[in-house]
Input
Amino acid sequence: MDKGRPEHDVDIRGLIELIVKALVDHPDQVVVTQLEGTHSVVLELSVAAVDVGKVIGKKGIHADAIRRIVHAIGGKTKKRYVLEILEN
Output
């Protein structure tokens, strides 16, 4: 682990990018922007328009799974994470 960061500090942005790039046809267009507030962090996920359905999944199952992971990490780091899915 990087010595400059505490052990519990997770690169959640990189984790979401890794997961989403495995799902989409255009991984080069996956961008995750992290907007930090005092008690919450908004993660904006931007993908190609044709890949939005793949990220969301049938009945939202993929998006829900990614949000559950983000929520679980938030419990550990004591921050509230919100994932927003955008299209290019």
About this structure: The chain has a mean pLDDT of 89. The radius of gyration is 13 Å. The longest strand covers residues 40-47. The chain has one domain: 12-87.
